Amino acid sequence: MVTKTQLSSRFKQVFYNTGVGIMIVDKDRNLIEVNPKFCETLGYTKEELIGNSAKMIHISNKTYLEFGEKAFSQVRKNKTVNLEWPFEKKNGEKVWFRIAGDPVPGQEEVLWTIVDITQRVEAQEKIEQLASKLSKYLSPQVYESIFYGKKNVKIEAYRKKLTVFFSDIKGFTELTDRLEPEVLSSLINNYLNEMSKIALKYGGTIDKFVGDAILIFFGDPETKGEKKDARACVLMALEMRQRMEYLRKIWEDQGITAPLRIRIGINTGFCNVGNFGSEDRLDYTIIGGQVNLASRLESNATAEQILISHETYALIKEKIVCEKGQEIKVKGIVHKVQTYEVIGTQQQLINKNKLLKENYEGFSLSVDLNRSKKEQVLESLKKAIREIQKGRNLIT
User: Fold this and answer.
1) What CATH homologous superfamily does 157-352 map to?
2) 173 pLDDT exceeds 70?
3) What does pTM read for this prediction?
Protein backbone atom coordinates (compact mmCIF):
# COMPACT_ATOMS: atom_id res chain seq x y z
CA MET A 1 0.00 0.00 0.00
CA VAL A 2 1.19 3.53 -0.75
CA THR A 3 0.48 4.64 2.83
CA LYS A 4 2.84 1.97 4.07
CA THR A 5 5.50 2.59 1.48
CA GLN A 6 8.46 4.81 2.24
CA LEU A 7 8.10 7.60 -0.32
CA SER A 8 11.15 9.47 -1.47
CA SER A 9 11.43 13.07 -0.32
CA ARG A 10 11.41 14.23 -3.96
CA PHE A 11 8.14 12.40 -4.67
CA LYS A 12 6.58 13.82 -1.51
CA GLN A 13 7.57 17.32 -2.54
CA VAL A 14 5.98 16.91 -5.96
CA PHE A 15 2.92 15.08 -4.59
CA TYR A 16 2.02 17.70 -1.98
CA ASN A 17 3.10 20.90 -3.76
CA THR A 18 2.10 20.35 -7.39
CA GLY A 19 -0.69 22.41 -8.91
CA VAL A 20 -2.28 19.23 -10.27
CA GLY A 21 -4.76 17.23 -8.24
CA ILE A 22 -3.67 13.64 -7.48
CA MET A 23 -5.54 10.68 -6.01
CA ILE A 24 -4.45 7.08 -5.56
CA VAL A 25 -7.04 4.30 -5.43
CA ASP A 26 -6.73 0.60 -4.68
CA LYS A 27 -8.07 -2.33 -6.69
CA ASP A 28 -11.52 -1.86 -5.11
CA ARG A 29 -11.51 1.82 -6.14
CA ASN A 30 -11.19 3.10 -2.57
CA LEU A 31 -9.27 6.33 -2.04
CA ILE A 32 -6.01 5.62 -0.20
CA GLU A 33 -4.12 8.87 -0.83
CA VAL A 34 -4.95 12.38 -2.06
CA ASN A 35 -2.90 15.56 -2.31
CA PRO A 36 -3.92 19.07 -1.10
CA LYS A 37 -4.79 20.29 -4.61
CA PHE A 38 -7.24 17.42 -5.08
CA CYS A 39 -8.95 18.22 -1.75
CA GLU A 40 -9.08 21.94 -2.58
CA THR A 41 -10.65 21.32 -5.99
CA LEU A 42 -13.44 19.11 -4.65
CA GLY A 43 -13.96 20.93 -1.34
CA TYR A 44 -13.24 17.93 0.91
CA THR A 45 -10.71 17.43 3.70
CA LYS A 46 -8.23 14.60 3.38
CA GLU A 47 -9.87 12.81 6.32
CA GLU A 48 -13.27 12.87 4.56
CA LEU A 49 -11.85 11.16 1.49
CA ILE A 50 -9.29 8.58 2.65
CA GLY A 51 -10.74 5.09 3.06
CA ASN A 52 -13.96 5.87 1.21
CA SER A 53 -15.10 4.65 -2.21
CA ALA A 54 -14.36 6.87 -5.18
CA LYS A 55 -18.11 6.69 -5.85
CA MET A 56 -18.54 9.67 -3.51
CA ILE A 57 -16.91 12.05 -6.01
CA HIS A 58 -18.91 10.87 -9.05
CA ILE A 59 -22.14 12.66 -10.03
CA SER A 60 -24.10 9.37 -10.09
CA ASN A 61 -23.73 5.65 -9.70
CA LYS A 62 -24.13 5.38 -13.48
CA THR A 63 -21.09 7.59 -14.23
CA TYR A 64 -19.13 5.74 -11.51
CA LEU A 65 -19.76 2.42 -13.29
CA GLU A 66 -19.08 3.90 -16.74
CA PHE A 67 -15.78 5.34 -15.52
CA GLY A 68 -14.84 1.91 -14.22
CA GLU A 69 -15.44 0.41 -17.67
CA LYS A 70 -13.84 3.16 -19.75
CA ALA A 71 -10.91 4.11 -17.54
CA PHE A 72 -10.13 2.16 -14.36
CA SER A 73 -10.14 -1.31 -15.91
CA GLN A 74 -8.07 -0.06 -18.86
CA VAL A 75 -5.34 1.41 -16.65
CA ARG A 76 -5.05 -1.82 -14.70
CA LYS A 77 -4.37 -3.50 -18.04
CA ASN A 78 -1.46 -1.04 -18.51
CA LYS A 79 -3.36 0.91 -21.18
CA THR A 80 -3.07 4.70 -21.38
CA VAL A 81 -6.15 6.62 -20.27
CA ASN A 82 -6.62 10.35 -20.81
CA LEU A 83 -10.16 11.69 -20.94
CA GLU A 84 -12.54 14.40 -19.83
CA TRP A 85 -15.02 13.38 -17.16
CA PRO A 86 -17.61 15.04 -14.89
CA PHE A 87 -17.30 14.77 -11.08
CA GLU A 88 -19.19 16.25 -8.14
CA LYS A 89 -17.87 18.60 -5.49
CA LYS A 90 -18.79 18.30 -1.81
CA ASN A 91 -21.31 21.15 -2.22
CA GLY A 92 -23.03 19.30 -5.10
CA GLU A 93 -21.60 21.40 -7.91
CA LYS A 94 -20.61 19.67 -11.12
CA VAL A 95 -16.94 19.94 -12.06
CA TRP A 96 -15.13 18.71 -15.18
CA PHE A 97 -11.65 17.16 -14.98
CA ARG A 98 -9.13 16.14 -17.58
CA ILE A 99 -8.03 12.93 -15.88
CA ALA A 100 -5.11 10.65 -16.67
CA GLY A 101 -4.22 7.38 -14.96
CA ASP A 102 -1.13 5.25 -14.47
CA PRO A 103 -0.72 1.99 -12.51
CA VAL A 104 1.51 2.16 -9.45
CA PRO A 105 4.52 -0.16 -10.09
CA GLY A 106 4.42 -3.28 -7.95
CA GLN A 107 1.02 -2.44 -6.46
CA GLU A 108 -2.62 -3.10 -7.41
CA GLU A 109 -3.22 0.60 -7.32
CA VAL A 110 -3.79 3.43 -9.78
CA LEU A 111 -2.52 7.00 -9.59
CA TRP A 112 -4.84 9.54 -11.16
CA THR A 113 -3.93 13.13 -11.99
CA ILE A 114 -6.66 15.70 -12.52
CA VAL A 115 -6.83 19.18 -14.05
CA ASP A 116 -9.95 21.33 -13.61
CA ILE A 117 -11.32 22.20 -17.08
CA THR A 118 -14.79 23.27 -15.96
CA GLN A 119 -14.53 26.82 -17.32
CA ARG A 120 -13.48 25.62 -20.77
CA VAL A 121 -16.20 22.96 -20.92
CA GLU A 122 -18.91 25.42 -19.80
CA ALA A 123 -17.71 28.01 -22.33
CA GLN A 124 -17.78 25.35 -25.05
CA GLU A 125 -21.31 24.32 -24.03
CA LYS A 126 -22.47 27.95 -24.24
CA ILE A 127 -20.95 28.26 -27.72
CA GLU A 128 -22.66 25.02 -28.81
CA GLN A 129 -26.00 26.22 -27.40
CA LEU A 130 -25.63 29.52 -29.25
CA ALA A 131 -24.61 27.73 -32.44
CA SER A 132 -27.64 25.45 -32.08
CA LYS A 133 -29.92 28.48 -31.80
CA LEU A 134 -28.30 30.16 -34.80
CA SER A 135 -28.68 26.97 -36.85
CA LYS A 136 -32.46 27.42 -36.70
CA TYR A 137 -32.06 30.51 -38.87
CA LEU A 138 -29.90 28.78 -41.51
CA SER A 139 -30.34 25.84 -43.82
CA PRO A 140 -28.33 22.86 -42.45
CA GLN A 141 -26.06 22.82 -45.52
CA VAL A 142 -25.28 26.53 -45.13
CA TYR A 143 -24.78 26.19 -41.38
CA GLU A 144 -22.28 23.35 -41.81
CA SER A 145 -20.46 25.18 -44.61
CA ILE A 146 -19.96 28.23 -42.38
CA PHE A 147 -19.21 26.55 -39.05
CA TYR A 148 -16.84 24.01 -40.57
CA GLY A 149 -14.99 26.66 -42.55
CA LYS A 150 -16.08 25.52 -46.02
CA LYS A 151 -17.45 28.95 -46.92
CA ASN A 152 -16.30 32.48 -46.22
CA VAL A 153 -18.74 34.85 -44.52
CA LYS A 154 -18.34 37.74 -46.93
CA ILE A 155 -20.15 39.32 -49.83
CA GLU A 156 -19.59 37.01 -52.79
CA ALA A 157 -21.66 35.25 -55.45
CA TYR A 158 -21.16 32.97 -58.42
CA ARG A 159 -23.20 31.47 -61.26
CA LYS A 160 -24.27 27.88 -60.96
CA LYS A 161 -26.90 25.63 -62.50
CA LEU A 162 -29.59 25.00 -59.92
CA THR A 163 -33.06 23.53 -59.72
CA VAL A 164 -35.36 26.05 -58.06
CA PHE A 165 -38.60 25.27 -56.21
CA PHE A 166 -41.40 27.68 -55.29
CA SER A 167 -44.63 26.78 -53.51
CA ASP A 168 -47.51 28.40 -51.68
CA ILE A 169 -50.96 27.52 -50.37
CA LYS A 170 -53.70 28.55 -52.76
CA GLY A 171 -56.28 30.77 -51.05
CA PHE A 172 -54.19 31.18 -47.91
CA THR A 173 -54.37 34.99 -47.93
CA GLU A 174 -58.17 34.93 -47.76
CA LEU A 175 -58.02 32.37 -44.95
CA THR A 176 -55.79 34.56 -42.77
CA ASP A 177 -58.58 37.14 -42.43
CA ARG A 178 -60.92 34.53 -40.94
CA LEU A 179 -58.59 32.80 -38.47
CA GLU A 180 -57.54 33.88 -34.99
CA PRO A 181 -53.80 34.77 -34.78
CA GLU A 182 -53.07 31.80 -32.49
CA VAL A 183 -54.77 29.33 -34.83
CA LEU A 184 -53.07 30.86 -37.87
CA SER A 185 -49.62 30.67 -36.23
CA SER A 186 -50.17 27.04 -35.27
CA LEU A 187 -51.33 26.13 -38.77
CA ILE A 188 -48.52 27.85 -40.67
CA ASN A 189 -45.81 26.57 -38.31
CA ASN A 190 -47.18 23.03 -38.56
CA TYR A 191 -47.21 23.30 -42.35
CA LEU A 192 -43.70 24.76 -42.66
CA ASN A 193 -42.31 22.21 -40.22
CA GLU A 194 -43.68 19.27 -42.23
CA MET A 195 -42.50 20.72 -45.55
CA SER A 196 -39.04 21.45 -44.12
CA LYS A 197 -38.61 17.85 -42.98
CA ILE A 198 -39.33 16.64 -46.50
CA ALA A 199 -36.99 19.25 -48.04
CA LEU A 200 -34.11 18.17 -45.79
CA LYS A 201 -34.85 14.51 -46.52
CA TYR A 202 -34.16 15.12 -50.22
CA GLY A 203 -31.18 17.42 -49.64
CA GLY A 204 -32.79 20.73 -50.57
CA THR A 205 -31.36 24.05 -49.41
CA ILE A 206 -34.18 26.00 -47.76
CA ASP A 207 -33.70 29.60 -48.84
CA LYS A 208 -36.57 31.33 -47.09
CA PHE A 209 -40.17 31.32 -45.90
CA VAL A 210 -42.38 34.25 -46.84
CA GLY A 211 -45.69 33.70 -45.12
CA ASP A 212 -46.96 30.44 -46.60
CA ALA A 213 -44.54 30.61 -49.55
CA ILE A 214 -41.39 28.47 -49.62
CA LEU A 215 -38.25 28.90 -51.74
CA ILE A 216 -35.92 25.88 -51.94
CA PHE A 217 -33.09 25.12 -54.35
CA PHE A 218 -30.92 22.13 -55.22
CA GLY A 219 -27.29 22.26 -56.39
CA ASP A 220 -25.56 24.45 -53.81
CA PRO A 221 -23.72 24.37 -51.47
CA GLU A 222 -23.88 20.63 -52.15
CA THR A 223 -24.75 18.95 -55.46
CA LYS A 224 -25.21 15.40 -56.70
CA GLY A 225 -25.19 16.44 -60.34
CA GLU A 226 -27.80 18.22 -62.46
CA LYS A 227 -30.01 15.19 -63.11
CA LYS A 228 -30.03 13.90 -59.54
CA ASP A 229 -30.62 17.40 -58.16
CA ALA A 230 -33.59 17.96 -60.48
CA ARG A 231 -35.02 14.51 -59.74
CA ALA A 232 -34.65 15.02 -55.98
CA CYS A 233 -36.48 18.34 -56.25
CA VAL A 234 -39.43 16.84 -58.15
CA LEU A 235 -39.62 13.81 -55.84
CA MET A 236 -39.65 16.25 -52.92
CA ALA A 237 -42.53 18.13 -54.51
CA LEU A 238 -44.52 14.92 -55.01
CA GLU A 239 -44.05 13.91 -51.37
CA MET A 240 -45.04 17.40 -50.20
CA ARG A 241 -48.26 17.19 -52.21
CA GLN A 242 -48.99 13.78 -50.73
CA ARG A 243 -48.22 15.02 -47.21
CA MET A 244 -50.83 17.75 -47.60
CA GLU A 245 -53.55 15.07 -47.63
CA TYR A 246 -52.52 14.09 -44.09
CA LEU A 247 -52.30 17.71 -42.94
CA ARG A 248 -55.75 18.56 -44.29
CA LYS A 249 -57.27 15.83 -42.12
CA ILE A 250 -55.54 17.26 -39.05
CA TRP A 251 -56.68 20.78 -39.86
CA GLU A 252 -60.24 19.61 -40.45
CA ASP A 253 -60.25 18.08 -36.95
CA GLN A 254 -59.15 21.50 -35.65
CA GLY A 255 -62.13 23.18 -37.32
CA ILE A 256 -60.38 24.50 -40.43
CA THR A 257 -62.80 23.40 -43.13
CA ALA A 258 -61.21 25.26 -46.05
CA PRO A 259 -59.49 22.66 -48.29
CA LEU A 260 -55.95 24.05 -48.25
CA ARG A 261 -53.99 22.91 -51.30
CA ILE A 262 -50.51 23.77 -52.47
CA ARG A 263 -49.28 24.74 -55.93
CA ILE A 264 -45.69 24.28 -57.02
CA GLY A 265 -43.36 25.64 -59.70
CA ILE A 266 -39.96 24.18 -60.55
CA ASN A 267 -37.29 25.37 -63.00
CA THR A 268 -33.68 24.46 -63.75
CA GLY A 269 -31.14 27.00 -64.99
CA PHE A 270 -28.14 29.15 -64.20
CA CYS A 271 -28.62 31.42 -61.18
CA ASN A 272 -26.48 33.77 -59.14
CA VAL A 273 -26.01 32.13 -55.75
CA GLY A 274 -24.07 33.34 -52.72
CA ASN A 275 -24.00 35.96 -49.99
CA PHE A 276 -25.88 39.16 -50.79
CA GLY A 277 -26.36 42.20 -48.59
CA SER A 278 -24.16 44.57 -46.61
CA GLU A 279 -20.99 44.07 -44.58
CA ASP A 280 -23.15 43.93 -41.44
CA ARG A 281 -26.03 41.78 -42.68
CA LEU A 282 -25.72 39.00 -45.25
CA ASP A 283 -28.30 36.70 -46.80
CA TYR A 284 -27.30 33.47 -48.55
CA THR A 285 -29.77 33.30 -51.41
CA ILE A 286 -30.29 33.03 -55.17
CA ILE A 287 -31.26 35.65 -57.75
CA GLY A 288 -31.71 35.81 -61.51
CA GLY A 289 -34.15 35.25 -64.35
CA GLN A 290 -34.32 31.48 -63.77
CA VAL A 291 -35.43 32.08 -60.20
CA ASN A 292 -38.16 34.42 -61.46
CA LEU A 293 -39.28 31.76 -63.95
CA ALA A 294 -39.75 29.20 -61.17
CA SER A 295 -41.88 31.77 -59.33
CA ARG A 296 -43.98 32.41 -62.47
CA LEU A 297 -44.53 28.68 -62.94
CA GLU A 298 -45.79 28.45 -59.38
CA SER A 299 -48.20 31.36 -59.84
CA ASN A 300 -49.52 29.77 -63.08
CA ALA A 301 -50.06 26.38 -61.42
CA THR A 302 -53.51 25.38 -60.20
CA ALA A 303 -54.20 23.85 -56.79
CA GLU A 304 -52.38 20.51 -56.32
CA GLN A 305 -50.48 21.05 -59.57
CA ILE A 306 -46.70 20.73 -59.95
CA LEU A 307 -45.67 22.78 -62.97
CA ILE A 308 -42.14 22.48 -64.34
CA SER A 309 -40.16 24.00 -67.19
CA HIS A 310 -38.80 22.14 -70.23
CA GLU A 311 -35.27 22.39 -68.77
CA THR A 312 -36.35 20.47 -65.67
CA TYR A 313 -38.48 18.04 -67.69
CA ALA A 314 -35.49 17.10 -69.86
CA LEU A 315 -33.56 16.05 -66.75
CA ILE A 316 -36.29 13.97 -65.07
CA LYS A 317 -38.36 12.49 -67.91
CA GLU A 318 -36.65 9.09 -67.75
CA LYS A 319 -38.00 8.36 -64.27
CA ILE A 320 -40.96 10.70 -63.81
CA VAL A 321 -44.13 10.89 -65.88
CA CYS A 322 -45.18 14.37 -66.99
CA GLU A 323 -47.93 15.76 -69.18
CA LYS A 324 -47.19 18.51 -71.67
CA GLY A 325 -48.98 21.69 -70.70
CA GLN A 326 -49.56 25.14 -72.15
CA GLU A 327 -46.95 27.65 -73.19
CA ILE A 328 -46.90 30.71 -70.96
CA LYS A 329 -45.59 34.21 -71.46
CA VAL A 330 -43.09 35.32 -68.82
CA LYS A 331 -41.89 38.88 -68.35
CA GLY A 332 -38.21 39.22 -69.29
CA ILE A 333 -38.22 36.16 -71.57
CA VAL A 334 -38.76 36.81 -75.30
CA HIS A 335 -40.14 33.41 -76.25
CA LYS A 336 -43.02 31.58 -74.61
CA VAL A 337 -42.12 28.99 -71.98
CA GLN A 338 -43.29 25.40 -72.46
CA THR A 339 -44.70 23.91 -69.24
CA TYR A 340 -45.18 20.33 -68.08
CA GLU A 341 -47.36 18.98 -65.30
CA VAL A 342 -45.79 16.33 -63.07
CA ILE A 343 -48.10 13.30 -62.78
CA GLY A 344 -45.96 10.97 -60.68
CA THR A 345 -43.07 8.53 -60.84
CA GLN A 346 -43.27 5.68 -63.31
CA GLN A 347 -43.22 3.21 -60.43
CA GLN A 348 -46.13 4.97 -58.72
CA LEU A 349 -48.24 4.74 -61.85
CA ILE A 350 -47.30 1.11 -62.40
CA ASN A 351 -48.37 0.37 -58.82
CA LYS A 352 -51.70 2.05 -59.58
CA ASN A 353 -52.02 0.06 -62.83
CA LYS A 354 -52.10 3.27 -64.85
CA LEU A 355 -48.84 2.71 -66.71
CA LEU A 356 -48.20 -0.37 -68.83
CA LYS A 357 -44.53 -1.05 -69.56
CA GLU A 358 -42.91 -3.99 -71.27
CA ASN A 359 -39.33 -3.96 -72.52
CA TYR A 360 -37.21 -6.79 -73.86
CA GLU A 361 -35.07 -7.44 -76.92
CA GLY A 362 -36.93 -6.41 -80.05
CA PHE A 363 -40.00 -5.21 -78.14
CA SER A 364 -40.84 -2.02 -76.25
CA LEU A 365 -44.29 -0.94 -75.01
CA SER A 366 -45.25 1.99 -72.80
CA VAL A 367 -48.88 3.07 -72.37
CA ASP A 368 -49.92 5.79 -69.92
CA LEU A 369 -53.60 5.13 -69.18
CA ASN A 370 -53.93 8.58 -67.61
CA ARG A 371 -53.05 10.51 -70.72
CA SER A 372 -53.38 8.28 -73.76
CA LYS A 373 -56.45 8.19 -76.01
CA LYS A 374 -57.77 4.66 -75.57
CA GLU A 375 -59.16 4.27 -79.12
CA GLN A 376 -55.88 5.46 -80.66
CA VAL A 377 -53.92 3.03 -78.46
CA LEU A 378 -56.16 0.14 -79.53
CA GLU A 379 -55.68 0.99 -83.20
CA SER A 380 -51.91 1.13 -82.75
CA LEU A 381 -51.90 -2.25 -80.99
CA LYS A 382 -54.13 -3.82 -83.69
CA LYS A 383 -51.82 -2.48 -86.39
CA ALA A 384 -48.79 -3.94 -84.58
CA ILE A 385 -50.54 -7.31 -84.25
CA ARG A 386 -51.42 -7.36 -87.96
CA GLU A 387 -47.78 -6.63 -88.90
CA ILE A 388 -46.52 -9.35 -86.58
CA GLN A 389 -48.99 -11.84 -88.06
CA LYS A 390 -47.85 -10.92 -91.59
CA GLY A 391 -44.26 -11.57 -90.54
CA ARG A 392 -45.18 -14.98 -89.15
CA ASN A 393 -47.00 -15.93 -92.37
CA LEU A 394 -43.96 -14.99 -94.44
CA ILE A 395 -41.70 -17.16 -92.28
CA THR A 396 -44.03 -20.15 -92.45
Assistant:
1) Nucleotide cyclase, GGDEF domain (3.30.70.1230)
2) yes
3) 0.64
